[in-house]
Amino acid sequence: MIDPHQVNTIISTTICAFFGHHPHAKIGIEEAKLLAKQIADAINEAGLQIAAADPASPKAD
Q1: Is the CB of residue 3 less than 8 Å from the CB of residue 51?
Q2: Tens digits of per-residue pLDDT, 25-49?
């Protein structure tokens, strides 16, 4: 079972890193957390799921 908090943290950290490279468009951590939750909710509502990678599967390039 994937920890929803971990998923939201990964997404929000990625959002902050993305906006960190764009000086004219900043986003705070709280806004990034809310956006991450909305993204995860939209994925779930679409019937999709985020799952851990199978260590036996080859990695995609």
Answers
A1: no
A2: 889 999 999 999 999 999 999 999 8
